Amino acid sequence: MQYLIDLHTHTIASDHAYSTIMELVSQAKVKGISLFAVTDHGPDVSDGPHPWHFNNLRVVPHLAEGVGILRGIEANITADGGLDLEEGRLKNLDIVLAGFHPNYLPTTVEEHTRLMCKVIRSGLVDVISHPGAAQYPVNYEEVLLCAKECNVAIEINSSSSVNTRMGSHENCVKIGKLAAKIGNTISLGSDSHIAYFIGCFDESLKVIAESGVKEEQIINTSPLKVLDFLESRGHKPIFELRDYFSK
Q1: Cα–Cα dist 10/39, whole Å
Q2: How far is the C-alpha of 189 from the C-alpha of 86, rounded, in Å?
Q3: Domains of the chain (ranges plus CATH)?
Q4: Cβ pair 133, 102 in contact under 8 A
Q5: The whole model's pTM is what?
Q6: DSSP secondary structure string, 111-154?
Q7: What are the tens digits of pLDDT across the range 206-246?
Q8: Is the Cβ–Cβ distance between 187 and 179 less than 8 Å?
Q9: Rounded Cα distance, 175 and 100, in Å
Q10: Comparing C-alpha atoms, which of 190, 204, 226 is closest to residue 68?
Q11: Does residue 94 come out as left (phi exceeding 0), alpha (psi in the -120 to 50 range) or beta?
């Protein structure tokens, strides 16, 4: 199946990315992408945007040139099991991803697992990003059971082992096999740092094929399925997108 929703992209607001939101929209139109999430890094990474960036995402339209846009963040998990953006700002966003990044230096499997589960239980995070990162090993079963209990999606990231996080592929397959068994909700993200990579799910598709993740577990199959999931997480309905994709 071709997936036409990308729930993890970056713009020039993250200085190590290279495209604007308008350029993402343009490439989404070329590729037939119906909906994507703008999820720039939280402020704790050295080139992340100022917290005001996330307040001002309200000026970004939810619909541009026939492409749906979700206003989001890829927040950074901190050493105390928190996130690097205040709760009030997070709750004003459409989607919140969170994962480990270099703002937090790796320690042990047990500590990584504890912090990730604490973030999952916080109620503030919708998707755990690239949990198979080789630099931050976790107890996959413990994390996936916690995510299932808390209705938090697990990402299969299409940049892992391709553009970054080398050595993560086998970890992602292990996670996929466990997710298939446990019944986790799965989110696909290109982790695009340039517009040309939006919607590129080659690596994700390899992981899906090798792990046996079922299509019904994947929320990227339709815009309405994504919106239903986000509302089940407590986000406000985005009626403009609901109306548009219900036609």
Answers
A1: 6
A2: 24
A3: 5-245 (3.20.20.140)
A4: no
A5: 0.96
A6: HHHHHHHHHHHTS--SEE--TT-TTS---HHHHHHHHHHHT-EE
A7: 999 999 999 999 999 999 999 999 999 999 999 999 999 99
A8: no
A9: 16
A10: 226
A11: alpha
